[in-house]
Amino acid sequence: xxxxxxxxxxxxxxxxxPRRWPAARVTLRGWSVRHRTRAAGLRTFQLDHLxxxxxxxxxxxxxxxxxxxxxxxxxxxRLSSPRRSVVLAWNLT
Length: 93
Prior knowledge:
Blueprint: E1 7-10, E2 13-16, E3 24-37, H1 39-49, H2 59-69, E4 71-73, E5 76-90
Antiparallel strand pairs: 1-2, 3-5, 4-5
Helix pairs in contact: 1-2
């Protein structure tokens, strides 16, 4: 991209030059992911999701930690994971 150009390339996509965008309002929002499962499913989902091999020595410690965080339900367990995301808002009018 040159200084005179108003577009930038990203692969085959063409995006507007961010220097020409209006100012954005930045807001942090909290939210949570909830996963329902049975105890064995929790271990499989969470631990395998990390890509750790089955014999990884960290697995038992993480499994113990996760089981302390779950809420027991009649049909299994619920694990909530708090998250934060940045929301950018532009006023285009």
